[in-house]
Design a protein that fits this description.
This protein is an alpha/beta fold and 277 residues long. It is 38% helix and 16% strand. Helix 1 runs parallel beside helix 3, helix 2 runs antiparallel to helix 3 and helix 6 packs parallel to helix 7. It starts with a helix and ends with a helix. Bound molecules: flavin mononucleotide. Flavin mononucleotide binds next to helix 4, strand 5 and strand 7.
Length: 277
């Protein structure tokens, strides 16, 4: 193909592409450019944002080539300003276009690298083993590490007798100040290496079993995706996840999932696969 035709085709493609991008997204492209996220590498002018300016820059480059056809000063088509109009200029336009369409890690304008893809942790409290079982299924499905939270003073069967007004759980339920249950540890070895944390607990009286509170309060979830899950006899997850999110104060918390007490591995796997992790 004649070089002129080649260049014309590229320029036309670029004009259409950029007009569509601008019409579709305009100045609303910025939210895609979160530091650390994997996004389109569209920050053409490298100012830390993807916005209409970037599309405009590509358009300007394409327009420079168009000027050849329009009989305007040819110097305008010298995209790389090396005083000659040649395939290098066309290539420069292609490279610029590629920046808009090739999905590669975004490093932003600061030069700061996004965190390396992190590991997944399943941290859970389980008084009678049901949540522990589900935690194991999640860990198997995701290749995650696991950490069980254990109260310094573990709950006996008698402690858990919620039908007995004199039991420990009933006392703690009726006296919220008594729900601050000490855990043997709230420290996760290698905490910074995890970017996804599943948080599992049984439902007690419609809320998350309170031994979980101490863990979420004690840790900084900044930069982590947090996915709550729970087991219960019949109650839904309710506001247990959002309550924990408020206690934590940090992290990107996703909507959680409730499983019945004896949930099957298949059910749990299906949910995990649907999370798109
Ligand atoms: C103190 C206590 C309160 C409970 N409250 C509820 C409840 O409000 N709704 C419900 O569906 N199940 C309730 N359950 C049942 C547990 O949520 C369920 O058995 C859960 O799977 C236990 O998980 P675990 O074996 O990991 O401790 C309660 C159990 C206990 C011991």
């Amino acid at each position: 193909m004649h070089p002129g035709k080649y260049i014309r085709r590229i320029a036309s493609f670029m004009m259409v592409f950029v007009f569509i991008m601008t019409a579709l997204y305009g100045n609303t492209l910025t939210p895609f450019a979160q530091q650390g996220d994997i996004i389109c590498y569209g920050d053409v002018d490298e100012n830390g944002h993807i916005q209409a300016d970037d599309a405009l820059l590509v358009l300007k480059h394409a327009a420079k080539l168009e000027t050849i056809q329009a009989g305007l000063p040819a110097a305008l088509a010298d995209v790389n300003q090396d005083t000659s109009i040649d395939a290098e200029d066309a290539l420069e336009i292609l490279r610029t276009a590629a920046k808009l369409i090739a999905p590669i890690p975004y490093t932003g304008g600061s030069g700061e690298e996004p965190p390396a893809a992190g590991k997944t942790l399943v941290v859970y409290f389980s008084a009678t083993g049901n949540t522990k079982e589900v935690a194991g299924y999640i860990a198997a499905a995701t290749g995650a590490d696991q950490m069980e939270l254990t109260p310094v003073n573990p709950y006996s069967a008698a402690d858990l007798s919620w039908t007995n007004p004199d039991s420990r759980v009933v006392y703690e339920h009726n006296n919220p100040e008594a729900r601050d249950v000490a855990l043997t540890t709230t420290t996760v070895p290698g905490w910074d290496s995890y970017d996804t944390v599943f948080i599992g607990y049984p439902i007690w009286w419609g809320i998350a079993a309170w031994p979980m509170n101490g863990f979420v309060s004690a840790n900084d979830f900044t930069g982590k995706t947090v996915i709550p899950f729970c087991t219960s006899a019949s109650s839904g997850i309710g506001e247990s996840g959002t309550n924990l999110q408020e206690l934590a104060g940090t992290g990107r918390w996703m909507e959680g999932m409730r499983f019945r007490s004896n949930a099957s591995e298949e059910t749990v796997q299906e949910w995990v696969n649907g999370l798109g992790l």
